[in-house]
Amino acid sequence: MSHTLFIADLHLSPTRPDITDCFERFMHKEAINADALYVLGDLFEVWIGDDDHSPFHQQIKAAFSAVTEQGVPVYFIHGNRDFLIGQRFAKETGVTLLNELECIDLYGTPTLILHGDTLCLEDVDYQAFRRKVHQPWLQRLFLCLPLTWRRKIAAKMRAGSANANQQKSSTIMDVTPQEVQRQLDKAGVVNMIHGHTHRPHIHQWHQHGTAYQRIVLGDWYQHGSVLVCRQQGCDLQSRDFAN
Ligand code: OKV
Ligand code: MN
């Protein structure tokens, strides 16, 4: 019983070798020594199907295989970008896919883990987009298309969304506090870990005399961001790209 690692929002892509290098270093040097690794979504900037076997994807998958083959359990929750990661990816890497909301036992502390996009109810455009692309029939249809078509459709969708996001205020992009409380109360726990908002912080508050904690993971845009949890508690840390 040593420590458990959490990461999210790496947004890995072939255009950012600095992030990829930092991630590979993290996997080979750190994840290998952990009790478990949880990836809470948006590992990839783009995911259009497990059949996309580009050299870049093979390289990232190899990093996961190396860790799982050493006996370290690796768990993955979908983000809003890589929600199409499927059982084929899981089989190729040894990673276990989890549901969008899970309650885990973190050294005796029940903890709710999720990507975090489902907490941002004020971003109504995104919630509508999510409902659409999470329809199983639409996903099956999309995955039947040739990879070249899927690449084109995905690029068009990303270009459209980059435009829309420039207009949105920071409150709209953050979590809805009432939804955080509702999810915790529904699960009957007082601890939550998520990513998505790119605002790393350990929030603590009281409600009706009960102490609550919500840990937000950071993104990997300017440095790596890692949550290290032990029996005694959790620590939000960063990792330099240059090393
Ligand atoms: C991921 C986001 C693009 C946000 C398309 C059905 C449909 C899946 C898809 C295509 C796009 C993921 C898979 C991507 C996230 C965007 C733009 C905005 C806000 C269909 C199922 F509808 F075409 F049939 N996609 N890609 N966005 O490029 O990775 O999260 S993506
Ligand atoms: Mn996200």
UniProtKB/TrEMBL annotation:
<keyword id="KW-0472">Membrane</keyword>
<dbReference type="InterPro" id="IPR010138">
    <property type="entry name" value="UDP-diacylglucosamine_Hdrlase"/>
</dbReference>
<dbReference type="GO" id="GO:0030145">
    <property type="term" value="F:manganese ion binding"/>
</dbReference>
<dbReference type="InterPro" id="IPR004843">
    <property type="entry name" value="Calcineurin-like_PHP"/>
</dbReference>
<feature type="binding site">
    <location>
        <position position="42"/>
    </location>
    <ligand>
        <name>Mn(2+) 2</name>
    </ligand>
</feature>
<keyword id="KW-0464">Manganese</keyword>
<feature type="binding site">
    <location>
        <begin position="80"/>
        <end position="81"/>
    </location>
    <ligand>
        <name>substrate</name>
    </ligand>
</feature>
<feature type="domain" description="Calcineurin-like phosphoesterase">
    <location>
        <begin position="4"/>
        <end position="200"/>
    </location>
</feature>
<feature type="binding site">
    <location>
        <position position="198"/>
    </location>
    <ligand>
        <name>Mn(2+) 1</name>
    </ligand>
</feature>
<feature type="binding site">
    <location>
        <position position="165"/>
    </location>
    <ligand>
        <name>substrate</name>
    </ligand>
</feature>
<keyword id="KW-0378">Hydrolase</keyword>
<keyword id="KW-0997">Cell inner membrane</keyword>
<protein>
    <recommendedName>
        <fullName>UDP-2,3-diacylglucosamine hydrolase</fullName>
        <ecNumber>3.6.1.54</ecNumber>
    </recommendedName>
</protein>
<feature type="binding site">
    <location>
        <position position="9"/>
    </location>
    <ligand>
        <name>Mn(2+) 1</name>
    </ligand>
</feature>
<keyword id="KW-0443">Lipid metabolism</keyword>
<keyword id="KW-0441">Lipid A biosynthesis</keyword>
<feature type="binding site">
    <location>
        <position position="11"/>
    </location>
    <ligand>
        <name>Mn(2+) 1</name>
    </ligand>
</feature>
<comment type="similarity">
    <text>Belongs to the LpxH family.</text>
</comment>
<feature type="binding site">
    <location>
        <position position="196"/>
    </location>
    <ligand>
        <name>substrate</name>
    </ligand>
</feature>
<keyword id="KW-0479">Metal-binding</keyword>
<feature type="binding site">
    <location>
        <position position="115"/>
    </location>
    <ligand>
        <name>Mn(2+) 2</name>
    </ligand>
</feature>
<feature type="binding site">
    <location>
        <position position="80"/>
    </location>
    <ligand>
        <name>Mn(2+) 2</name>
    </ligand>
</feature>
<keyword id="KW-0444">Lipid biosynthesis</keyword>
<feature type="binding site">
    <location>
        <position position="168"/>
    </location>
    <ligand>
        <name>substrate</name>
    </ligand>
</feature>
<dbReference type="InterPro" id="IPR043461">
    <property type="entry name" value="LpxH-like"/>
</dbReference>
<keyword id="KW-1003">Cell membrane</keyword>
<feature type="binding site">
    <location>
        <position position="123"/>
    </location>
    <ligand>
        <name>substrate</name>
    </ligand>
</feature>
<feature type="binding site">
    <location>
        <position position="196"/>
    </location>
    <ligand>
        <name>Mn(2+) 2</name>
    </ligand>
</feature>
<dbReference type="GO" id="GO:0019897">
    <property type="term" value="C:extrinsic component of plasma membrane"/>
</dbReference>
<comment type="function">
    <text>Hydrolyzes the pyrophosphate bond of UDP-2,3-diacylglucosamine to yield 2,3-diacylglucosamine 1-phosphate (lipid X) and UMP by catalyzing the attack of water at the alpha-P atom. Involved in the biosynthesis of lipid A, a phosphorylated glycolipid that anchors the lipopolysaccharide to the outer membrane of the cell.</text>
</comment>
<comment type="pathway">
    <text>Glycolipid biosynthesis; lipid IV(A) biosynthesis; lipid IV(A) from (3R)-3-hydroxytetradecanoyl-[acyl-carrier-protein] and UDP-N-acetyl-alpha-D-glucosamine: step 4/6.</text>
</comment>
<dbReference type="GO" id="GO:0008758">
    <property type="term" value="F:UDP-2,3-diacylglucosamine hydrolase activity"/>
</dbReference>
<dbReference type="GO" id="GO:0009245">
    <property type="term" value="P:lipid A biosynthetic process"/>
</dbReference>
<feature type="binding site">
    <location>
        <position position="42"/>
    </location>
    <ligand>
        <name>Mn(2+) 1</name>
    </ligand>
</feature>
<dbReference type="Pfam" id="PF00149">
    <property type="entry name" value="Metallophos"/>
</dbReference>
<dbReference type="GO" id="GO:0005737">
    <property type="term" value="C:cytoplasm"/>
</dbReference>
<dbReference type="InterPro" id="IPR029052">
    <property type="entry name" value="Metallo-depent_PP-like"/>
</dbReference>
<feature type="binding site">
    <location>
        <position position="161"/>
    </location>
    <ligand>
        <name>substrate</name>
    </ligand>
</feature>
